[in-house]
Amino acid sequence: MYKACIYCQRKLGDNEAVENFPVGRRIAFDQEKGRLWVVCERCRRWNLSPLDQRWEAIEECERQFHDTNHRFSTDNIGLARLPEGLELVRIGRPQRREFAAWRYGKQFLRRRVRTLVETGVKVAAVGVGAVFGVYIFGIFAASQDKVIARVRNGGGDSLKVTLKDAHKAKLIETADTEDGWTLELQYREKERNWGILGRFGKGKAKTTHLDGATAIRAAGRILPKVNAFGGSNSQVHNAVQLIEEARSPKRLFKMSAAAKGEERLSTVFFVDATRLVKMDATTRLALEMASHEEVERRAFEGELAELEEAWREAEEIAAIADSLLLPDSVDDWIRRQKKKLLASS
């Protein structure tokens, strides 16, 4: 059972209320679809649970949700706080926009507040005076040079992406790939570290092109940093509309790669509209949301090797590797479990 957030690697905490799933301080569950998430308290992102750990836990969450008096519910989504302090989010049949507002709204708002505070601190530091000018410049330079994501290429190699690299990532329309687009990404082959002879750098940036599911996973890793200012509820709703119009994450990425076409002339310089950071905020938020949901879709449909990889990076262990090797009869077993859950509700 995992205990760290897939995205920010912080501990998810624990609870004593759900005996079959003692992880997390906020748990979201969808009994009808058989899905269970742990919501990270720090980054607010939803971590999909391993398939074999969720069935009894969902049934227990459903029972405790109805047993508590401290709950608020609409026809589609409910929120309950148990006496132990655990929060339960019950997903019914929400419209996509309502579900997105619950899932991403607080995450994006918290990200915006944190970025504004950090920016304010840096700006205030600049005002201290020219005496500390070199030091302040060093702070900004160090933040740009920090590794903010570790992604895998098609061969399984770990690529270290700094904030500076993430801001140069591009979606490129191409006829050479099955999906019609690629993600151009700069990366470093090693981390910055301290050695006996001094500090060793990451080396020069290299460029790679990713496509398909590999590119979507990589985009899901770097987009939270590119979308540092998060988004408002209206932007979340508009982003969901883009996802619905595209009908699939791959088509959304292809549309975004094709929409930019040419560079446009600014009053000072050319702006490369293929870069993720130069796309409008609504499009970037839609791409981030779609990339996360695509990984979950693949995990739920049995392509759990990707989910295992994410657990490894978060936990640095392979404790759940065996649980991801599902037998051919898994579909029948899932259906039986769903019928059992629905019959008990």
Question: Could you walk me through the main structural features you see in this protein, from its secondary elements to its overall organization?
Answer:
The protein is α+β, with helices and mostly antiparallel strands and 345 residues long. The chain has ten helices and 15 strands. Strands 3-2-1-6-5-4 form a six-stranded mixed β-sheet, with helices on one face. Strands 9-10-13 form a three-stranded antiparallel β-sheet. Helix 2 (96-126) crosses helix 6 (233-246), helix 6 (233-246) crosses helix 7 (249-260) and helix 7 runs antiparallel to helix 8 (281-300). The longest helix has 31 residues, at 96-126.
List keywords for this structure.
globular, 10 helices, 345 residues, alpha+beta, 15 strands, six-stranded mixed beta sheet, 2 domains
Order of helices and strands: EEEHEEEHHEEHEEEEEHHHEEHHH
Question: What portion of residues belong to β-strands?
Answer: 15-25%
Structural class: alpha+beta
Low-confidence stretches: 194-200, 261-271, 315-326
Number of helices: 10
Helix content: 40-55%
Number of domains: 2
Q: Mean of the pLDDT scores?
A: 76
Strand count, sense and closure of the main sheet? 6 strands, mixed
Which of globular, elongated, flat, extended, rod-shaped describes the shape? globular
Say how many strands there are. Answer: 15
* Rg, Å, rounded: 22 Å
Oligomeric form: single chain
The strand line-up of the biggest sheet is 3-2-1-6-5-4
Distance between the termini: 26 Å
